[in-house]
Amino acid sequence: MPDMNIIQAVNSALSGLMREDARVVVFGEDVGKFGGVFRATDGLQAQFGEERVFDTPLAEAGIVGTAIGMALHGMRPVPEIQFADFIFPAYDQIVNEAAKMRYRSGGQYSCPLVIRTPYGGGIRGGLYHSQSPEALFIHVAGLKVVVPSNPRDAKGLLISAVRDEDPVIFLEPKRIYRASRGEVPEGLYEVPLGQAHVARKGQDVTLLAWGAALHDTLSAAERAAGDGTDCEVIDLRTLLPLDLDTILRSVRKTRRCVVVHEAPKTCGFGAELSAIISENAFGSLEAPVMRVTGYDTPFPYALEHEYLPGPARILAGIERALDDDIPS
Amino acid sequence: MATQLSLGLAPAHVRLDAFHRDMALLRAVDDASRHLDGGAPSCLGLEAALAGTCVALSEKDWVLPGPRQASIALLRGASLVAWFAQLLGRSADPARGRQAPGHASFRSLHVVSPTSLPGSQLPIAAGVARAMKLARRGEVALAACGHGAVATDRFHVGLNFAAVAKSPVVFVVLTQGELARVTASRNVAVKASAYGMQAFEADGGDPLAVEAAVRAAVESARAGQGPSLVDVRCPVPPALQPPKALRVVGASTSDDAWAEADPLARVERLLAQKGPLDAAGLSARHDDARRRVAEAVAVAMELPAPEPSLLFDDVFARMTAALRSQRRDWLADRAFAELED
């Protein structure tokens, strides 16, 4: 089984999907000849031709509008938005057109497309190359939101997303694009949407994370183990649909929970997770659900490691979740 | 499908007669819609533009209209009952009562669900056309919008993407009212050259002129020549009385001016000169259209609202666990409310 990083796994998934299904097309800014700013589409144009792998003008609303139209006509477009920070000119097309097409047409039309986009900080990208906008898409009825944390999942989840009948926002953690490596099967396989993965079993605290933050969370869990705290770490992998069963099973066991994400705290997905856990497992909780997140500031360039929820801050969050002095 | 499709190169007055049948139907639909709850985006003054546009397309072509152009679906064969069921939010609406009045969609007729956002359909039409180009079946996508859309980023992106990709798409802009509030260009057509595409212009009160312009654009797209912009200048009707006022940007036309410019009246004057319909025939045509519309409205009014449980369908192809849970909550809340009553 070949060893790959996330970029190579994404490339492998796209290549396999395009071989399997002539309806799959890949496009975006510089994805064709150049192979993408992060090289995720490297070699695909040479392999599949300029009709199926093409460069577009730099206008995200046009990239996504094109994808919606192609999906309506029966294709499986996989557009790339170069950075998630740049997706907002296309937000209207995503929210008001792609997400609503099936519902507003009474199921006559569907919009099976996958928007791939690198997200997250920690690469000295500053305000416009670091944001984590997952909650802005989870909040929109009609969209699925997927965030892999490792190469094997990246490939399997992307294959599931492209084969899915609905629009998917596929957020790729660029901080670990190359740093996360592992064995990846060569053929096509699916990691089903809506299934979380227990990345570390434990008894004392449940830690929920996704994407690049999963790795910091695992590091924190290892350090906590040194202090005698046994953390269970769940990689959500799909934020919508959410694997509520796996979350609740864990929280009912550990009775404590910390959510970790890079996005700002207020109205971040951690807030929703905390509410869901309170609604469904309040009687099991020994402590409030704690959140370790980015701050409610724009993403800072020089101070990005102050902003990001690294292992030390996650450890502090675990300590707060273990504290029996519940705030009143 | 529109009646004219089978007429080929029939003499102009015969073609005008067929156009008149379609335009009379649209006028009857518009008149009836203004008196119904919710109303609908009016196509008053656009009848010739819609009829002329429709006849220039073949069945395999797709239409992406805005709400004021959506009644083109009726000329492509949509049932009047389905149309009014959509308008009234009744069960026979193919879109299951999900959209506001006048946003009907008919996939079997290749009429895409309209968006309420002016011009959002233009980049999507460019995408549909790009897929058509790959499919190599000679299909053409046609996006129709009002001139207000010209001011949007969506207009620019849609036309630019289509032009760069040389996709088989026709953008029909129906100008109806004051253009100066939208663009400093002297007209819409002039914008085409900046995108490197062809422009066609037509008098929107003349269905034959609109057909000629749109047909030229469609044939060009089908021949692989890429997209075109069709600038159709439509007459502005007088302001209608509230609560169903027609919102058209620009000064309201006087009744006398409208009598002169009304596309339906113009066609009727020509038909009266050349036949085949005399005044009695024209009157009978209108009576027939009004009768068909009234019957459809009556049928639609008697239909129930969509099944309440449809609230949760069609968000996704398969309902998520979260939606199933909310559906259970909704059922429980309904049961509770019934007990309370």
Could you explain how this protein is built, in words?
The complex is a heterodimer of chains A (328) and B (341). Chain A is of the alpha/beta class and 328 residues long. Chain A folds into 2 domains: 3-183, 3-Layer(aba) Sandwich (Rossmann fold); 197-322, Rossmann fold. Chain A is built from 12 helices and 14 strands. In chain A, the strands form 4 sheets. Chain A has a 5-stranded mixed sheet, sandwiched between helices. A 4-stranded mixed sheet of chain A has the order 5-7-6-12. In chain A, strands 3-2-4 form a 3-stranded parallel sheet, with helices on both faces. The model of chain A has no long low-confidence stretch (mean pLDDT 97). Chain B has 2 domains: 3-302, Thiamin diphosphate (ThDP)-binding fold, Pyr/PP domains (Rossmann fold, 3-Layer(aba) Sandwich), CATH 3.40.50.970; 308-340. Chain B has helices spanning 12-33, 47-55, 72-75, 80-88, 121-135, 153-165, 191-195, 207-222, 255-261, 263-274, 279-302, 321-340, and strands at 62-64, 141-146, 169-175, 198-203, 228-233. Chain B has a 5-stranded parallel sheet, sandwiched between helices. In chain B, strand 2 (141-146), helix 6 and strand 3 (169-175) form a beta-alpha-beta unit. Chain B is globular, with a radius of gyration of 21 Å.
